[in-house]
Amino acid sequence: MKKQLIILALLCFSAAGNMAFSQVHLSVNIGLQPVWGPVGYDHVEYYYIPDADAYYYVPEHRFYYNEGGAWVSGGSLPGRYHDIDLYHVHKVVINEPQPWLRHNEYHERYHSYSGRRDQEVIRESHDPRYFEIKEHPEHGKWKGGEHGEHGDHGDHGDHGNHGGHDEGRGHH
Q1: Which of 14, 58, 66, 161 has the fewest Cβ atoms nearer than 10 Å?
Q2: Cβ neighbours of 50 (radius 10 Å)
Q3: CA separation for the pair 98, 55 (Å, rounded)
């Protein structure tokens, strides 16, 4: 009986340790966020973009949008969104998998944000935690987290700067 209790206790501690590790591992992804994303979030899975009625998946730098009744993904928004400036449209953070599966709910809740231009974006922030993002204007000041290093720390994708002009457009 004692042996079973010890094994049970070890399993519980192990499970609690794994949960704590998972939470820490998933809690911060600032370095993956695009410079057109809104400030104030340490972890973002998706942005819902009401002006485009579309989603942006931060970990893979992909847009999800409705095309002929089906949700498809791409590295940029299709041409019909050519007037969307990602630096100025409102973005809503959604941290759940595949938010388009509940799109009617998100559309209903956040469609009124379409046309709002009231968010500070990461590119304009002077908060040192955002310097980690390679495309941030102050990336050269980044201390490299706990390593205290400067310079290039890997490429995290194009972060929405399509066409090489840093316009923040969701298209080429």
Answers
A1: 14
A2: 20
A3: 9
Regions of the chain short of the pLDDT cut 70: 1-27, 145-172
DSSP of 34-75: -TTSBSS-S--SEEEETTTTEEEEGGGTEEEEEETTEEEEES
Q: How many CA atoms lie within 13 A of 157 on its CB side?
A: 16
What is the enclosing helix (H) or strand (E) of 93?
A: strand 92-94
Residue in the structure block whose two tokens are 């390679």: 134
Q: Using the 8-state DSSP alphabet, how is residue 158 labeled?
A: -
Handedness of CA 144, 147, 149, 152 (dihedral sign): negative
Provide the pLDDT for residue 95. 97
Predicted pLDDT of residue 2:
57
Cα-flanking dihedrals φ and ψ of residue 156, to 5°? -105, 25
| Residues 18/10, Cβ–Cβ less than 8 Å | no
CB 159 within 8 A of CB 150: no
The position carrying tokens 């095309």 is 67
First to last CA, the chain: 66
Q: Which residues of 6-20 are buried (b: 16+ CB within 10 A; e: fewer)?
A: eeeeeeeeeeeeeee
**Dihedral in degrees, nearest 10, Cα atoms 117, 119, 122, 124:** 70
